[in-house]
């Protein structure tokens, strides 16, 4: 089973990776983009050294950026390694999907080739996955739209944890290399387009040549490009689109000229589009395809202006980011859900519970009329009802006009019909004996089946989470004391029936503790209360009724 802290580490890594990828899109030039690529690895991916080798027009690779060591940067930046030597390196060693790892035991044959390299002395590894100073890890970058057109190679060294990266670290490095390749390609494309636009404005005598250069860069760009009208009744209407954009949206150019991006954007993203169209810049949003589906794209607007007449049109660059968005959603789900059962994990449970709680205990106001009387009457009474002594102050977020919906624990001793957020803490009885007798494979199968049974017994808006081991938690809102007790009985009865694993029937029992979430409590306090009540309930039941196996 995964360590309880691992989801936090994964979530932190994903946030750092997301920030590093976001920084790639803020670079203003190709040189800035290359340096940002190297800096992002050191700042966000946990390596002390990073080097970006870029393919030159003649095919050889030049060290274009370095991060992590100023002495190494001064020594090898600008040096060139032959394409033959690089292809040799990428063809040897261990294949980690798109990555290439050459351990120090194999890399000694590369010490004398012409690829610029920097090594630091260090001790021999003490355990199998410890990083050696002469280990080499490469992340090839390929141009968008093709898997064999090498754009460059990222090389990294000295992981901060001293170990070779695991599956999670490799996936993060591979994804970062893919996004870096897109950023470098886009930086080159933007540089070419900007040069073309400058020529259109400043080189009046070479107008035809400039227009042809722009046309080719526009038409044959590997990503979508569009020119839209600015100002007037037709503001935003598409005047021209390239083939890549037509393929992306599944519509011919003649049809696209009837629309503006506002007609194609997802309704939830219209505000983002309007801000980007008015100010220029970059946005990530969804555009509609001909088949009715929506596609995630990165949309970058550049306002093309005439020195005499002001803004003339918008030049829009549209990049397909559907795969990256899907990957981000998958990573987010994996970071917040249990890998075995698919249920929300401990971190996600605490986040959902904390979202329902505030630091101030809820105080009930009898009626709005009484609260108003109190506000204009006795000062102490007005303050007791949440109003300031000098009148109304609805901007403080307190009192009867607080927009937060407070959670209140019902009176368990007297079921007066009040409802609250019930927290049911479940601990399986007899699960350890199943693990000991039949092995972890059977134990895992039992946990998966218990998760399924719990999920089928609750409402759509309720939460079933795995806290860890054989402990589960159910969050169910809008329940009274009797409702929560009935739910605990239904859940226990759903767990008790035999579970068949590999032709063998095993049984587990369940003990439930019912706690209540109330504002003024922390998520830890709520869970601790439910846990304590579960142990009280477990001790109160005879051992015979808790046996399983």
TrEMBL record:
The EC number(s) this enzyme carries: 2.7.7.65
Coiled-coil annotated spans: 186-213
Keyword Coiled coil included in the entry's annotation: yes
PAC domain span: 281-333
GO molecular function: diguanylate cyclase activity
Keywords from the UniProt entry: Coiled coil, Nucleotidyltransferase, Transferase
Ranges for domain PAS: 210-269
Pfam families referenced in this protein's UniProt entry, alphabetically: GGDEF (PF00990), PAS (PF00989)
Cytoplasm keyword on record: no
Residue ranges occupied by any GGDEF domain in the UniProt entry: 419-549
InterPro entries from the UniProt entry: Biofilm_reg_signaling (IPR052155), GAF (IPR003018), GGDEF_dom (IPR000160), PAS (IPR000014), PAS-assoc_C (IPR000700), PAS_fold (IPR013767)
NCBIfam families (UniProt xref): GGDEF, sensory_box
Protein known as: Diguanylate cyclase CdgB
Taxonomic source organism: Streptomyces poriferorum
């Amino acid at each position: 089973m995964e360590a309880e802290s691992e989801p936090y580490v994964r979530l932190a890594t994903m946030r750092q990776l997301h920030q590093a990828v976001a920084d790639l899109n803020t670079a203003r030039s190709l040189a800035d983009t290359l340096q940002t690529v190297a800096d992002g690895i050191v700042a966000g991916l946990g390596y002390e050294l990073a080097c970006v080798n870029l393919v030159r027009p003649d095919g050889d690779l030049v060290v274009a950026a370095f991060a992590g060591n100023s002495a190494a940067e001064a020594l090898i930046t600008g040096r060139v390694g032959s394409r033959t030597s690089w292809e040799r390196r990428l063809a040897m060693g261990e294949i980690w999907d798109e990555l290439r790892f050459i351990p120090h035991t194999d890399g000694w044959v590369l010490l004398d080739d012409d690829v610029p390299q920097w090594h630091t002395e260090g001790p021999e590894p003490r355990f199998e996955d410890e990083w050696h100073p002469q280990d080499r890890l490469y992340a090839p970058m390929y141009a968008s739209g093709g898997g064999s057109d090498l754009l460059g190679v990222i090389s990294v060294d000295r992981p901060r944890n001293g170990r070779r990266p695991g599956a999670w670290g490799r996936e993060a490095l591979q994804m970062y290399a893919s996004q870096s390749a897109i950023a470098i390609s886009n930086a080159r494309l933007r540089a070419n387009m900007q040069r073309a636009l400058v020529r259109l404005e400043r080189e009046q005598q070479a107008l035809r040549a400039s227009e042809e250069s722009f046309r080719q860069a526009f038409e044959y760009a590997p990503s979508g490009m569009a020119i839209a009208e600015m100002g007037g009744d037709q503001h935003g209407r598409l005047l021209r689109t390239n083939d890549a954009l037509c393929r992306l949206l599944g519509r011919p150019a003649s049809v696209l000229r009837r629309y503006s991006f506002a007609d194609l954007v997802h309704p939830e993203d219209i505000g983002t589009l309007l801000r980007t169209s008015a100010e220029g810049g970059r946005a990530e949003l969804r555009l509609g395809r001909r088949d009715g589906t929506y596609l995630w794209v990165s949309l970058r607007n550049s306002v093309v202006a005439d020195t005499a007449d002001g803004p003339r049109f918008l030049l829009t660059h549209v990049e397909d980011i559907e795969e990256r968005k899907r990957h981000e959603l998958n990573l987010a789900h994996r970071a917040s859900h249990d890998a075995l059962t698919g249920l929300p994990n401990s971190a996600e449970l605490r986040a959902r519970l904390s979202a329902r709680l505030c630091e101030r205990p809820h105080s009930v106001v009898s009626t709005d009329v009484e609260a108003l009387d109190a506000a204009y009457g006795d000062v102490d009474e007005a303050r007791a009802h949440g109003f300031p002594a000098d009148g109304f102050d609805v901007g403080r977020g307190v009192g009867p006009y607080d927009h937060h919906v407070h959670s209140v624990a019902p009176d368990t001793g007297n079921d007066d019909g009040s409802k609250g957020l019930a927290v049911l803490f479940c601990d399986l009885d007899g699960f350890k004996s199943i693990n000991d007798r039949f092995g972890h494979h059977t134990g895992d199968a039992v946990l998966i089946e218990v998760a399924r049974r719990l999920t089928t017994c609750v409402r759509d808006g309720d939460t079933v989470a795995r806290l860890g081991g054989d402990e589960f938690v159910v969050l169910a809102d809008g329940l009274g004391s009797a409702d929560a007790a009935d739910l605990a009985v239904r859940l226990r009865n759903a767990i008790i029936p035999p579970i068949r694993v590999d032709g063998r029937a095993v049984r587990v029992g369940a003990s439930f503790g019912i706690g209540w979430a109330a504002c003024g409590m922390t998520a830890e306090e709520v869970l601790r209360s439910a846990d304590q009540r579960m142990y009280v309930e477990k001790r109160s039941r005879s051992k015979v009724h808790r046996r399983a196996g």
